[in-house]
What does this fold into?
Amino acid sequence: MKKGWILSAALVLAMCIGCAILLSAEANAEEVSSGTCGNNLTWVLDDKGVLTISGTGKMRNFYEEQAPWYAVREEITSVVICNGVSSIGRHAFSKCGNLISVALPAGVTEIENNAFYYCSKLTDIVLPEGLTGIGHNAFSYCSSLKRITIPKGVTSLGGYVFYSCTGLTDIDLPEGLTRIDDFAFCGCRSLTSIAIPEGVTAISNYAFRGCNSLTSISIPNSVVSIGDYAFFECGFLKNITIPEKVRSIGNCAFQNCGGLTSITIPNSVISIGRHAFAQCKYLVSITLPESMTFIGNYAFSNCISLTDIKLSKGLTGIGRWTFAYCDSLESVTIPDGMTHIEDYAFLDCKSLTSITIPKSVTSIGNNAFYGCSKLKDIDFTESTQPTNPTVPTNPPDPFNGGAPNEGSSVWLIMIGVGLIVFGGAVLIVVKKPE
It folds into this structure.
């Protein structure tokens, strides 16, 4: 890999020193088209497929499909930017479908939005050390790009910057980087690992969504939030440590991370969004810190291997479907201070055998424990609510159009308790207050 980078650097050096050497070597090449692309910049495309830009100053920004060479873009196989050029304009090379290599000089400080958008054959580009900014969608859909190093001067990566770079396996992020915008690496399905440098404060929305080869990621202590869908469908991510300063985990942040077996949530976290860990099918146990006050709906639904969860005392309620279909969950203790358990909260937790409900709980939603077929022990001894368990004859099944439930069921009637709360359960012991 190092040898490849040395060769690439040598190529850039040879191509960029005033472009004189290259122009001499291509003396036999014939001009195909030419024009201007900035106040003091000109461009020439030759019959070898080389587009050369020379002069001084910034390249103009272009609207989509309006770059001066757009009509001949399919003939461009390489781009040489000469010394003196200070920026790559917006949409400059977007949809240059046959572009393979780009040589940038040290003087380029900015790559604007969509600069290399959809250059699907681009494999070779070395970003210069003087670069300070990379715009939105700059390299999105560059599906042949395999590795890239971001220079030290870059402090932010724009949204979608490497979106759907499906061949990208290796990227080095610099110290000094502080912001990675939404969708930055979304769909980089060949990326196996990445180290986020200290100084980045947030993992933005959808930042690594669909990076389904990602097995490890290093998150620095500077991060305070993990955004919505940040690691959604990172199916091979096995474990992750959330730093001590993180306060929130967004909606669907780790949903469908099928390989995730363990996760440590620090005491700093106060909220977990809806579907945050839904369908993490190999997640076995999780402890929620005492600082946590909110869990979104569906947060752990379909975590079919989850056997143990410790709920924090700071929680005031369990949302709709939060632990639905957690097939391996065996027991739950609701902490004192919780006031409500919402509809379908523990739906179809088929291994659940016991649950303790404290006196602070004043309402239990409809079908909260429906389908918990092994539930035998419910402890209401700490509850002040009047509780009268009854066994109706074939109570209606809400998941079968209201048809009679043929199984043995208990319809729990109490103040603040919804219909068919324990439908499908074969209750043997219901401990209620004296």
About this structure: The first strand starts at residue 31 and ends at 38. The CA atoms of residues 330 and 351 lie 5 Å apart. The two ends are 74 Å apart (CA to CA).
